[in-house]
Amino acid sequence: MTRFFMTAGELTGSFLTLTGENAAHAKVLRLKVGEQVLVSDGEGRECLCTISHVSPGQVSLVVQEQREAASEAKVHVSVYMAFPKADKLEHVIRKATELGACEIVAFPSARSISRPDEKNLDKKLERWQKIARSASEQSGRGRIPQVVLLPSFQQALARGARTDMPLLFYENEQATTLQMALERTPWSTVSILTGPEGGLEEAEVQQAREMGFTVCTLGRRILRCETAPLCALSAVMYAAGEF
Q1: Domain limits at 95?
Q2: 0.90 exceeded by the pTM?
Q3: β-bridge pairing 214-216 and 3-5
Q4: In Å, how far are 38, 78, 103, 207, 241 from 164, measured between CA atoms?
Q5: What CATH number is attached to the domain comprising 153?
Q6: Distance between CA atoms of 225 and 82, rounded to whole angstroms?
Q7: pLDDT tens, 61-80?
Q8: Rounded distance, CA 63 to CA 13, Å?
């Protein structure tokens, strides 16, 4: 079923109206009177609606039911990724959204080669948030993950450590697997932290340990920086019973 997003303030009452990009999207899809669509506030609430009228630039809807979005995961997973090169972050945002992440957090680390230009930061963040929105619509999410930018590795550690299960994945770790870490204590919120192309420095890994992160391996093979967070996210979702 086709899904549209509105703000929480717009998602009130028994009648809703699609305008702007939403109306243009409805036109492209050739939606007709009598068809049903879902309208979400991007925060986990949605309305089942029936199209009552279609006109240029506007689609009128009648709300049939308001409910919690059934497509959202019960576990909240935050993906923390050190800034990679090129458009790899866009790929992770798109795929992590499809897999059910609640937020994607980007930050600089010692070996980050590419960092956003301060002058273009707002435009980049706007683009990244649009990618998350588009991926949410495509995958039927009831929530749009927030894309968060942090100025330092230390701030990423401090923020990520607040979850029930803060995890850091390091290619030189051999003793602790993800399965072992997840079986230690109950959890409902998880942070997944991975490094850039050159990996994290040993000093950074030690800082993470001191902040309460469990350092894990993702297996015997070295994964690319855009593969590692998606691999870990998929494994956590599987362990949470989402697959």
Answers
A1: 76-239
A2: no
A3: unpaired
A4: 32, 11, 15, 18, 17
A5: 3.40.1280.10
A6: 9
A7: 999 999 988 889 999 999 99
A8: 8
